[in-house]
Design a protein that fits this description.
By secondary structure, the protein is an alpha+beta fold. The protein has two domains: 139 residues, LON domain-like (Archaeosine Trna-guanine Transglycosylase, Chain: A, domain 4); 79 residues, Methane Monooxygenase Hydroxylase, Chain G, domain 1 (Up-down Bundle). Helix content is 38%, strand content 22%. It contains eight helices and six strands. The relative contact order is 0.18.
């Protein structure tokens, strides 16, 4: 649960819009609507591990992904997190299939270790969809993507506040079981939803479904259902 309710540092360092402006100004890869380059490095794992308004710490030890981090730190610091599809174990060292929808994050903290590995923190920025086959020009994986921004209107924002109250009531009833404390009042509703989606002890397939929800409101409602099922399963 490390990092839950800690405000994602990316929120203060970059947004998709500011990232677009920065990338264009420095002459890096072309930027699509939503602030992502057309091609980004991807880091696939067995479960969805990054959501747009949350942050996550990673230890990077595989040689190909160590190279990825070195090159990302020299550029825009963007990494795309994706989920490996079931059966990936047979070809993990290669390029096994991944889910089409992932989340891009900004490296907000970086530590180089004496053994050549890295500790990093990714701040979630925006969901994306993988468009077509990967670029094989690097030792690590690259994919062409399009951003999938999640925008709340005023009605959705009000409804999300109500959903947060439901989530907090369920968390309070399950604090001992889940080990998750109540979110402080100052944590935005979207962050509450996305950090719960990221850190709740649930099946990888459910976590991917949560990531693929249209936005924070739909994700929050789905989380209410998840928590209610967990509560009934006691």
């Amino acid at each position: 649960m490390i990092g839950i309710w800690v405000m994602a540092l990316a929120c203060s360092l970059a947004t998709p819009a500011t990232l677009a402006a920065q990338t264009t100004a420095t002459g890096d890869a072309p930027v699509m609507t939503g602030g992502l380059p057309e091609t980004i490095p991807i880091f696939p794992l067995p479960s969805a591990t990054l959501f747009p308004n949350a942050s996550h710490a990673f230890r990077i030890y595989e040689p190909r992904y160590r190279t990825m981090i070195v090159e990302a730190m020299k550029g825009n610091r963007l990494i795309g997190m994706t989920t490996l599809r079931p059966g990936f174990e047979a070809d993990y060292e290669g390029r096994p299939p991944i889910e089409a929808i992932g989340c891009a994050g900004l490296i907000t903290d970086f530590e180089a270790l004496p053994n050549g590995e890295f500790n990093i923190v990714l701040g979630g920025l925006v969901k994306f969809r993988v468009l077509d086959e990967e670029d094989d020009s690097r030792i690590y994986r690259l994919a062409r993507v399009e951003p999938m921004e999640e925008v709340l209107n005023d009605q959705d924002t009000a409804a999300l506040g109500e959903v947060r109250q439901e989530l907090e009531s369920l968390l309070l009833a399950m604090t001992d079981r889940l080990g998750i404390v109540q979110p402080p009042a100052g944590v935005p509703d979207e962050q509450v939803v996305d950090e719960l989606a990221q850190y709740l002890p649930i099946d990888p397939s459910i976590r991917q479904e949560l990531l693929e929800e249209r936005g924070a409101l739909e994700r929050g409602r789905a989380l209410v259902d998840v928590l209610e099922r967990l509560q009934r399963a006691r």
